[in-house]
């Protein structure tokens, strides 16, 4: 009795390897759900909207440089202070950073600043020192 190896070879060559992705996707989603359920998230103790705290700042400067590409206008409490712009940057007082509001609109090339009570627009911004 002879063994027909040629038909066996043809049969093996004609079969394509098939990968079933459904179990793989099920395993990945199971791992993802496990990681989401077992993760623990903590809320920051002080939510200061991203403003640096006094202890986080380095240096003793009274003004900090705010560079904005294509900066054209700076408005402080409705007063145009664009004359203080140098090289697309402006220096803003630390008290404005801590207690005021700064809105940067990079697409328009403008910064809108609201100072704390009692601060003049001339003191809020300054010409950057080079």
Q: Looking across the biggest beta sheet, what order are the strands in?
A: 3-2-6-5
Annotation, overall tally of beta strands: 7
Please trace the helix and strand order, writing H or E for each element: HHEEEEHEEHE
Helix percent band: 25-40%
| Rg result | 32 Å
Termini separation: 97 Å
Mean pLDDT: 81
Fraction in beta strands: 15-25%
The description of the largest β-sheet is: 4 strands, mixed
Shape: elongated
Low-confidence stretches: none
Name the structural class.
alpha+beta
What is the number of helices?
Answer: 4
Protein topology:
Blueprint lengths: L4 H10 L6 H18 L24 E5 L5 E4 L2 E2 L8 E5 H6 L1 E5 L4 E5 L6 H4 E2 L4
Parallel strand pairs: 2-6
Antiparallel strand pairs: 1-4, 2-3, 4-7, 5-6
Description of the molecule:
The chain has a domain at 63-126. The chain is built from four helices and seven strands, in the order H-H-E-E-E-E-H-E-E-H-E. The longest helix is centred in the N-terminal third of the chain and has 18 residues, at 21-38. With 130 residues, the protein is an alpha+beta fold. The protein has helices at residues 5-14, 21-38, 94-99, 121-124, and strands at residues 63-67, 73-76, 79-80, 89-93, 101-105, 110-114, 125-126. The strands form two sheets. Strands 3-2-6-5 form a four-stranded mixed beta sheet. Strands 1-4-7 form a three-stranded antiparallel beta sheet. The model has no long low-confidence stretch (mean pLDDT 81). Strand 5 (101-105) and strand 6 form a beta hairpin.
